[in-house]
Design brief:
It contains 8 helices and 4 strands. The protein is of the alpha+beta class and about 190 residues long. It has a single domain, classed as Metalloenzyme, LuxS/M16 peptidase-like (Cytochrome Bc1 Complex, Chain A, domain 1), CATH 3.30.830. Strands 2-3-1-4 form a 4-stranded antiparallel β-sheet, with helices on one face. Helix 1 crosses helix 7 (about 150-160) and helix 2 (about 30-40) runs antiparallel to helix 3 (about 70-85). The longest helix is centred in the middle third of the chain and has 18 residues, at about 70-85.
């Protein structure tokens, strides 16, 4: 598990961070983090998400690995964070993240004609997120209005290796250091 400081739920950077977390860590292997870890054979999947609270938040990244790979997995996480913070992301990645956010809402979101408990849950999420979950045009505008410049500014602000905290849970690694050469994982996303 790795974490970076995030933002509270009503912060103006919230939407850009949500989209960036999709780009970095859509669950499984589709995001940058999962690609770096699965392409190298270190893990089978990874994820990144945000938690938002009233006064603060966190960007969380997680994966499971063989404890013999712990050092290399930590290296990969650090390099992916460093690369995103330094180089930002591409326009196509942002478009894909927006499509995912809006598609998920259309497929799984509550509607005004949904059952009472589903509407009540959507109203609670609306209050927590600051976006009306039952107002699809407002929800869409909140994400579609995020620009690539905003996402890359947020990446530079929050995706800094010096802010990264890493914790490994499980058996103690054997310390057979099979660490990849520095820059291996960051290079995966270089043109």
């Amino acid at each position: 598990m790795a974490a970076l400081p995030g933002v509270p739920r009503d912060h103006p950077d919230r939407r850009a961070l949500e989209l960036l977390s999709y780009i970095v860590g859509v669950p499984s292997y589709g995001g940058r983090l999962g690609w770096a870890l699965t392409k190298s054979g270190l893990t089978y999947a990874a994820a990144a998400s945000n938690s938002f609270a009233a006064h603060d938040g966190a960007i969380l990244m997680s994966t499971d690995c063989d404890t013999r790979n712990t050092d290399s997995v930590i290296q990969a996480i650090r390099e992916v964070v460093e690369g995103v913070g330094a180089d930002g992301v591409d326009e196509w990645e942002l478009r894909e993240a927006k499509a995912f956010m809006l598609g998920r809402m259309l497929l799984y979101g509550a509607r005004e004609d949904s059952e009472a408990d589903v509407v009540a849950a959507a109203l609670n999420r609306s209050e927590e997120s600051g976006v009306e979950q039952l107002d699809l045009p407002a929800f869409s505008r909140a994400y579609l209005s995020v620009t690539l410049d905003e996402v890359n500014r947020v990446a530079r602000t929050y995706y800094r290796p010096g802010l990264l905290a890493v914790a490994a849970v499980g058996a103690v690694p054997s310390r057979e250091k099979h660490v990849f050469p520095p820059g291996t994982f960051r290079a995966l996303f270089q043109p």
